[in-house]
Amino acid sequence: MTTAKRRARLALTLAGLIIAAIGLIIYGQAAADGDAADQAAIDASAADWADIIGYEAHQSVKDAAFEAEQDKRIAEEDKTFGLVLAGIGVAVFAGRWAVRPAVATKPVPAALAVPPMPVTTPAPAPPASVADELTKLAALRDQGVLTDAEFERQKRQLLDR
To answer: Is the whole-model pTM more than 0.70?
Structure first.
């Protein structure tokens, strides 16, 4: 394998691993943020209960519930981005196999070698006789494909050979 191919394979391998690792780090952090947002939403659920019971919830509790929902949405988007980035990293890493080393072929032992098949050409068709040609022309005339004048001209060419 040439040095350029080795470098290309190494570059694809490293780039793919780095991109996939960054994607997994982003996914892991977003998953933790999503869990924290879930807990914050649970903690802020007092605003929902206050509304159900009929009491007016304090504005700070309502703000906390809103922020928890926003954080959860952002965490879900970050998780998706992390997974996409990890997938791209895996695809780049897999691209290293596109730069394949040359496969060395071993010579086949003479005992295992398959002899080449002989090439045969089809035998040429035997030339048609004049009588066969006249019969074909008469059939074409009878079918209406040839006119009488065309039949006579073709017949004269066959007989003049």
So the answer is: no
Q: Are 19 and 92 in contact (CB under 8 A)?
A: yes
Distance CA 85, CA 6 (A): 25
* Beta carbons within 8 Å of 157's beta carbon, 6+ residues apart: none
Place of tokens 């196999």: 97
**CA–centroid distance for 158 within its chain:** 61
- Report the sign of the C-alpha dihedral through residues 79, 81, 82, 87, in that order: positive
Which segments in the chain show pLDDT lower than 70?
Answer: 1, 44-61, 101-106, 108, 110-113, 125-127
Q: What is the pLDDT of residues 76-105, one digit of tens each?
A: 888 898 889 888 888 888 887 777 765 556
Q: Whole-angstrom Cα distance, residue 84 to residue 24? A: 10
Q: Tokens 């509304």 — which residue?
A: 51
Q: Taking the mean position of all CA atoms in its chain, how far away is CA 72?
A: 34
